[in-house]
Amino acid sequence: MECPTCSSATKVLESREISNSTAIRRRRECKECEHRFTTYERPELSVRVVKKDGAREEFDQDKLKRGIVKACEKRPVSNEELEELIRKVVTKIRRRGVNEVDSSEIGNLIMDELREVDKVAYIRFASVYKSFDLETLEKEIKTIKR
Q1: Residue 64, number of CB atoms within 10 A of its CB
Q2: Buried b (16+ CB within 10 A) or exposed e, 79-104
Q3: Where does the pLDDT of residue 87 fall: very low under 50, low under 70, confident under 90, or very high at 90 and above?
Q4: Is the pTM above the cut of 0.90?
Q5: DSSP code for 75
Q6: Domain-wise residue ranges, the chain
């Protein structure tokens, strides 16, 4: 790997597994300028997402994370809980062993996990994802209260 500072070759100082063995953290050092930095190595999820309009795009874990973070904004949800939630959703998608997955399936997986983590975050995500009107939102809140 090249140094981000001077583009020279680097060496690995330390490697360790993180996130329940789903990633490897590597501490690196440039052989020339001695700049130190960290890299993360994760297996790529090569799945295409089929959108509502039929369009297809590559699965983007960062996009998934942005949606979940937005729903959890100003809620008592820790970064560890967010990362675990994302890991669970990605693992479920990966275990399906398919090349394509509907965006609705991904949304449902996220909602299932959010419901367990934070009810308000779940309602926020579901209201945007499912385009709730006021009546549907009220029904969903009553369902959660039970």
Answers
A1: 20
A2: eebbbebbbbbbeebeeeeeeebebe
A3: confident
A4: no
A5: S
A6: 10-41, 48-145
